[in-house]
Amino acid sequence: ELARRTGWPILADPASGLRRGPHTDRAPVLATGEHLLRSRWADDHRPEVVVQLGAMPTSKSYRLWLEGSTTGRVVAVDHLGRYPDPSHVVTHRVDAEPGALAEVAAGRCGNQGPTWWTEAWTEAERRASTAVARVVANSPFDEPAVVAGLDAALGSDTRLVVANSMPIRDLDAFLPTDCRPMRIMANRGACGIDGLVSTATGVAYDSGTPTVLFTGDLALLHDLSGLAAVRRLGVDLTVVVVDNDGGGIFSFLPIVDAAHVDHRRLFHTPHGLDPGLVDEFVGASLYRPDDPVSLADAL
Ligand SMILES: Cc1ncc(C[n+]2csc(CCOP(=O)(O)OP(=O)(O)O)c2C)c(N)n1
Questions:
Q1: Which parts of the sequence belong to the Menaquinone biosynthesis protein MenD middle domain (predicted)?
Q2: Cα of 242 to ligand 1 centre, how many Å?
């Protein structure tokens, strides 16, 4: 409502819950921040004020873009005393629950609606999301295509729990805004890859609704014992695991280019285990989709 009244665009982190739902038809909610903020266009469109609501967004481009900014105010709003500010760019801190603050602010500001600034950002979002969708559609079956598969197949009552490492970043980069609701949950904390199966099981149990965990193979193996509770609690849990035999995120480290370093052994840390072993462990049904259609069918 605040964005609709002020015309200020929202760069919505996937875990914020703002990317999905009927409000996206009325308010300028953007999902391509990870791509836009690393472009020249974003350098030419620096705002006077950035209001950061809640935890630090996932996007690395956002962090670098803030660091590159020499002017303007950065207001961090948080009620948990975190004020995440890894780049030391925050100029103002507001101790308030972000949703409550937005509600009060929306009630007090006028109803200006979209401005040229709003139009510029929403047009950039339109172009970027079209380009992203085209790239995803023409790519091999990889992480972006998995996100597209989840987007297409998950019902609005499903809870999507997303793991740290690349899955949350994949969602950030490739999940578009849509008026269909989607409940996304993440636990960024210190970005741990531990306890994710247990978290998803707890979400499924508490909500009583079908739950999907989107995870990497290391995070799944880290909390394999969490699966023991799935059958006992009788929850409806589907695990979508991108199996790249280790930590795919480490292939983005600059050291990957150092020829004398055995990057694969030291950073990627392949384990050689087949995630299919969960089949025997908990009696789960295992599917090995190798294209978007078979992923959608399996889901
Ligand atoms: C508990 C814990 N141990 C280690 C790490 C360091 N770490 C960050 S990402 C990562 C790799 C995760 O691999 P995977 O879950 O397969 O996801 P991918 O990188 O392939 O997307 C590791 C080990 C961490 N974040 N948390």
A1: 2-161
A2: 13
The per-residue pLDDT for 283 is 83
Q: What is the pLDDT of residue 281?
A: 78
- Do 32 and 127 lie in one domain? The reply is yes
87 has a pLDDT exceeding 90: no
On whether the CB atoms of residues 87 and 70 are closer than 8 A, the answer is no
Are residues 255 and 287 both part of a single domain? Answer: yes
Atom 24 of ligand 1 has which residue's CA nearest to it?
192
Number of domains within the chain: 2
- Alpha-carbon span 278 to 215, nearest angstrom: 14
Bridge partners (DSSP) of residue 75 are: 51, 92
CATH number at residue 187: 3.40.50.970
Q: Is the CB of 249 under 6 A from ligand 1?
A: yes
Tokens linked to 26 = 């009325």
- % the chain with pLDDT above 90: 84
Percentage with pLDDT > 70 across the chain:
99
Q: Which atom of ligand 1 is nearest to the CA of 194?
A: 1
CA distance 81 to 93: 10
Residue that terminates a domain, selected from 131, 161, 181: 131
Q: Taking residues 167-188, what's their average pLDDT?
A: 96
- Assign residue 15 the CATH number of its domain: 3.40.50.1220
For 41, how many CA atoms within 13 A lie in the half-sphere containing its CB? 16
Is 132 within 8 Å of 36 (Cβ atoms)? no
Residue nearest to atom 21 of ligand 1 (CA): 166
Q: Identify the pLDDT of residue 70.
A: 65
The range of the structural domain enclosing residue 256 comes to 140-298
Probe target for ligand 1 pocket from 217, 249, 274, with the most ligand atoms within 8 Å of CB: 249
Please indicate whether residue 29, judged by its CB atom, sits closer than 6 Å to ligand 1: no
Report the chain's mean pLDDT, rounded to a whole number: 93
